[in-house]
Write a structure and sequence with these properties.
6 helices; Multidrug-efflux Transporter Regulator, Chain: A, Domain 2; elongated; mainly alpha; 149 residues
Length: 149
């Protein structure tokens, strides 16, 4: 009996530091994984610089300069400085929205329905009359005067 208790004591003395280290390591890793989310970024100002716009729309600064030179992106220029309004940039981005295939199919369907309802008008309404009268005059001039109908 005494042998067993001595063995248990030795085993506890040997394993206790190993288990404590393992538990501490796991807890440290767990805390690293479950860190609180970072503080939210400060809201964007109303007027932004070119660097801020590049970061906001996830493009490089030279690409934004290219968009400015092509007058693709809305901007303001005062002296040598470029300014961008946040609401203008957001509107510009939303205007670039592409239609889904379903929306395109629906709009094509609407177009064909509207197109069928409209009656086609001749482009030159007098052209048909002139053409027929010209043909009739030609036939009459070919027919001898005695056989005029």
């Amino acid at each position: 009996m005494e042998n067993q208790t001595t063995f248990e004591k030795m085993l506890r003395e040997f394993l206790t530091p190993i288990i404590e280290d393992a538990v501490e390591t796991v807890l440290n890793r767990k805390q690293g994984l479950f860190q609180p989310p970072p503080a939210p970024k400060q809201p964007l100002p109303e007027l932004m610089s070119i660097k801020m716009v590049a970061e906001y729309i996830h493009l490089s600064v030279p690409t934004v300069y290219g968009l400015v030179s092509k007058q693709t992106i809305p901007h303001y220029k005062r002296g040598n400085r470029l300014y961008f309004k946040r609401e203008d940039i957001e509107k510009w981005i939303s205007e670039g929205r592409r239609s889904t295939m379903r929306e395109v199919e629906d709009s094509v369907g609407d177009f064909t329905i509207r197109r069928r309802r409209k009656k086609k008008k001749p482009q030159f309404p007098g052209a048909l009359q002139l053409q027929t009268s010209f043909i009739c005059k030609g036939i009459i001039s070919i027919i001898p005067n005695d056989d005029v109908i």
